[in-house]
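ARCHIVE CARD
Drawer: 12
Card no.: 0347
Subject: one protein chain, sequence and derived structure
Cross-reference: see card 0346
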Amino acid sequence: MLGMKNRRSGASIALALALGVVLFGAAAPASAHNQVLDTVPAADSVVTEQPGTFSVTTSDALLQAESGNAMVVSGPASDPRYYGEGCGVVTGGTLALDAQLGEPGTYTVTWRGISVDSHVISDSYEFEWAPAAGVELAAGTVEPSCAAASSGDGQTTTAPDAGNSGSEPAVALGDVLWIGGGIVAALLAVLLTVVLVRRKS
């Protein structure tokens, strides 16, 4: 009789633990935040021919938003000018900008995108432009064509800053809510375990 009670208690504990795993799994995010998979040209690379198209490809789709997505190509570092028209085009998880480069030197690609889950992902990287002989150079402009992107409320936001990468405060709040939900689910599972064990005893 005692062995049967022990088996029942063990089964109850296993059931409660399984329920806790299910609840915690439901409270966890469905997938990790959007991440960069590839850039063209690659960071820290040496480019000798006009890339034509600059792009950043991420692991998740980007919103086809009229504002928020932005890409700026600037250089050389010694006397920076800006290259390309507009703020880039989104196709799936790729943000791309057509641009021709100017004088040789170190160039910077600065970009920002909005994932379909509303997370903001942004960063910047450098590459070396060493055009081969005969490559046609662009003049560039003094001001970036994507210096200000119009937001939905009529206000304007400047193009992404090189040091301003990652997510905005609203995104961090969402993460806190996910974590809090997971903790609550785990506590409920423990409480259910205690109740079931006491009943079987």
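Annotation on reverse: Residues 147 and 159 are 5 Å apart (CA to CA). The first strand starts at residue 36 and ends at 40.
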